Amino acid sequence: MTSVANISPLDDRYQQQVAELAKFFSEQAVMRYRVRVEVEYLIALSREKKITQLPLFSDEDQAKLRSIFENFSSRQFQAIKKIEEETQHDVKALEYFLRRRLKAIGLGQHQNFIHFALTSEDINNLAYALMWRDGVRQAYIPELHKVYSWLNTFARRYNDLPILALTHGQPATPTSLGKEFAVFASRLQRQLQQLKDHKLQGKLSGATGTWAAHTTAYPDVNWIAFSKRFVKSLGLEPNLITTQIEPNDSLAESYHILIRVNTILLDLCRDLWLYISRGIFGQKTKNGEVGSSTMPHKVNPIHFENAEGNLGIATAYLSHLAQTLPVSRMQRDLSGSTVIRNQGVPLAHSLLACKNILKGLDRLTVNRVRIREELNDHWEVLAEAVQTILRKFGSEDAYEQLKKLTFGAQISQKAITIFVTSLDIPAEEKEKLLELSPESYIGLASKLPEKLTG
């Protein structure tokens, strides 16, 4: 991980920022998850009374077996890789390794039940699902929740601070700063909940999904019920109708949730970039930092730009994973095998994006002076309110009147006041319009952040 010859910036420039994912997605982690599945399967077989050749392991022996994956070390990983040099098959190398380990802990007489009646995909699909689930839950969701919490808090704090809205990049009906961030918080909240609730599937049904070897060896065992129990014991949902491979639809669903999250965060980053460009936000400076190699005045929104780039890479990977893994020629091909090994890569880019967004958010300052200046420069945004009142009292050309006054123009408070004063509407309605300003014309925006939960 410290080699100057690393190809990926995830393993070099950004390694420290995504280091927590190594325990889920490194090559050693892949093997540890496989060991876990193999060991738990062996223990589960011993509990099946009709498999008389494999007696139930004692609590002590079960602890010995589980210690193989609980204490899985780089030395053990290298031992498997050494075997793989001969087998040219990683799961078979794992089987041979476990046979040796059983001998070492005094359980060698049961080694024939390692990987009993299974195909490699029975181990791999469960291992990869567990890796993804654990990486998402333990590393990614906590960081994403920090982003959501920041947005939620910010939305409530600035729920009544009016700002000029831009639609099509042009001045539009004012809103509140808090409400605009509540929009992003609300969107993220929904996807976060879906990510937490989503269930991954797994299969354990042999070479072509028929339990043929299982039933040949032990026809009296209810292998469908056995497989359901086993897959559930790992915290996954059993998929009983498959080919050799679990079709990965549930993984694709999870990837698509992340794609939606990344799309929302990308939208957030671009809006933040524009708010900074408009002067709505300033950025705290830090001693020693440089914004430009030639322009010393610059403080660039680099964290949001970095996040934007990483979100794009992550989404590209996730899209390919979601489109590739559910497709397999006939009962099995290997096109998905090399692809699924990369599922940690988009999660790392997504995690890196979240961390950069948080860094950027932490440096924001609200420029109230610029916000007020921008609002007071655009009294034409009250045209909507004036023509709506005119419609209320029967004016058939209300829109046209205001268009003539404001279309493509920047209107002052004085111009709006003169126009409103000339209107033939009830005095109380006229007074209502004259009391309006771009700062006060925000409707129910200040109440909307209260609708957020959590």
Can you walk me through this structure?
This protein has 454 residues and is mainly alpha-helical. The chain folds into 3 domains: 15-116, Fumarase C, Chain B, domain 1 (Orthogonal Bundle); 127-367, Fumarase C, Chain A, domain 2 (Up-down Bundle), CATH 1.20.200; 379-437, Ribonucleotide Reductase Protein R1, domain 1 (Orthogonal Bundle). It is 59% helix and 5% strand. It has helices at residues 22-25, 27-47, 59-70, 74-87, 90-104, 120-157, 177-197, 212-217, 223-233, 249-278, 302-324, 335-340, 344-362, 368-376, 383-392, 398-406, 413-421, 427-435; strands at residues 162-167, 170-176, 201-202, 237-238, 281-283, 364-366. The protein has a two-stranded antiparallel ribbon. It starts with 21 loop residues before the first helix and ends in a 19-residue tail after the last helix. The mean pLDDT is 94.
Number of strands: 6
Radius of gyration: 30 Å
Q: What's the number of structural domains? A: 3
* Spatial order of the strands forming the largest sheet: 1-2
